[in-house]
Amino acid sequence: MFLLGSWIYLLAVCILFDISDCALVSRGTYIESLDLKPLPRNTLLASFNFEIYSDSAAENGLVYGIDGADFLAHYGLFPRSVGQIVKSTQTHELHLRFTQGWWDSEEWGLLPHNGKYTGGTGVEVWAWIATEQDDEAENSWYELVNALSGLFCASLNFVDSSRTTPNPISFRPDSSGGSSSIFTNPTARKSNVSSTLHLYHGSLPRETVCTENLTPFLKLLPCKGRAGVSSLLDGHRIFDSKWQSMALDFVPICDSDNGCRLHMTQKVDVVLDVLRSLQRKHSPVPKPPPLEELQCDTSKSYHSESICFPLPSPHVVEWKLSDVFGRKIKNRCLLDQRSEYDGSSYSVCTHITPEWHLTREGGTVVSSTPSKACFSLHENDEFDIGFLTSNSTSVSKNERPPVYIQRSMTGRGQQNGGVQTIIHNPSMTDTVSLVYFESLPWYMKPYIHTLAAALSTSALSPIPAIKEEVVKDVLYRPFLERIRGTYLELKLEIPPDSRLTLSYDFDKTLLYLAEYPPDANRGFDVPPGILTVLTKDDNGTISYAYTLRTSSLLLSLPTPDFSMPYNVIILTSTVMALAFGTIYNILVRRFVYEDDVVREHTPLMQKLKQRIGAKFVLWKTAAEGNKPPESGKLQEETGAKYKSLDKKN
């Protein structure tokens, strides 16, 4: 209803004011799709793809500042919030990543999309700024990350100069390939775009990705997550996964005939544990199963009533898409124009083996083969897919990555340490060329002269470690304390079936008290390293074939005892209170005998009783005709009498 009301409002404005460019409002292309692929150990890879292409004539002015374009022509399907940000900051290209978890390359194979839309742990962003001056580009970069921080409810405003790396060679603009690029085609370039593009990269490995980031991510879609495949994206399920990545790419596409138009890609890739999702359906509150329901391997010699070695995951499984995501796919997003874009009409595809059997609810089968089945969605029907197999280990073949990489900390103590990176080329025939990029925080002081490269192979005779034969080029920019971090980039070549071990030493820096985070004893996160595999075609053109990241590191720095000031304050206050109380008592208090205090301080009530008793005795004596006693003696006798009465009572 919201979308329909917006279109009716725009149509009324066009008719009322006779705007000739109103035809451009409905222009632009939006396509969405979902790919499902079972993985080993009863896991599921779900890849959501959303793409928006603006109209070439309508959106030219958005990036390149052409005046005179109508307001309605600027924003059709393309989100206005993103358009205004990239326009005000003169951003030529933008790439934003939100990632959590760990991708198991040995079990799951290649990263989705060859790692192009995958970032490091936390939040990662890089962009090309089209300005003439370096200072102007840097200011635009900080303005960009602050605007993205507000748009996506992230902490990108903390990406300052110490977390920014300018112009690393591990990244290249997506709009630079082919003859239709704005870099190679002068007729497509606008006069107010500088030929100088400034690349900036920043990351926040400490950032936690959550529903606050997913909600604004979905609001950029035309259907806002209310219809189409995006209706499956529930934060409770997405962030309960083993690994998940959200990506947003903004890229201009230009050619000499049609000019430039904008292309925005949004992708969500998630690896879900099917069995855990099914258990959550039956038991929303996680709790361990009863002892009698545990499936133990009784063949183990140490098996007993108190020791259980769990059996592998069951091979016979049956589940539905709604069981894993907690909901069915709602009706098709009416703005999805895939059939008009590439001639196909599918929205959901499954990649399985012949041992899997599918059932569907709603939708239409577009194509079906033993290894792949695609379905289209209906406008008014919900859609669901059921998966059934007697051998869940039978999954589609996962291609082996061209390289494997792992990184870890070495050394001990609070003064210095080291970093070790192991890169493995599993190919038995091909040499791998790659670029390895690291951005270190300023409180890590690496010694570049300690950089060592050791090469080993699975053969009996090890290969001598000759650094010059493996490390072809080194780009290094030293740190400036509290201003910028260390930038290290290596161009490497690894022979077949070899492991390259890179290592270097570093010193740890003492921080000011205000520079420590609230949980300083946890450690400091070091951004992951980025490995880019290079390939060369027959014409000698180098392309980036595969990109992967290492896991982030946790650095332990010398940490003060933050509770010490409070302990000192409490101890000092206690000692001062005890000393002051003792001295004050000695100076002010006066010590006297108890009898003197009682005699001098007769209670008021006692005095009142004595006076009333004396009067009563006088009246009684006068009535009997006797001589009254003396006043002082009478009061003493009366007081003694009442004291005796008080004691008896």
TrEMBL record:
Which N-terminal residues, if any, form the signal peptide?
1-22
Chain segments carrying region Disordered: 624-649
User: Membrane-crossing residues?
Assistant: 564-587
Which ranges are annotated Basic and acidic residues under compositional bias? 633-649
Q: Which InterPro entries match?
A: PIG-T (IPR007245)
Q: Name one Pfam family in it.
A: Gpi16
**Keyword list, A-Z:** Membrane, Signal, Transmembrane, Transmembrane helix
What does the record list as GO biological process? attachment of GPI anchor to protein
The record's GO CC annotations read:
GPI-anchor transamidase complex
Q: What is this protein called?
A: GPI transamidase component GPI16
Native organism: Lipomyces starkeyi NRRL Y-11557
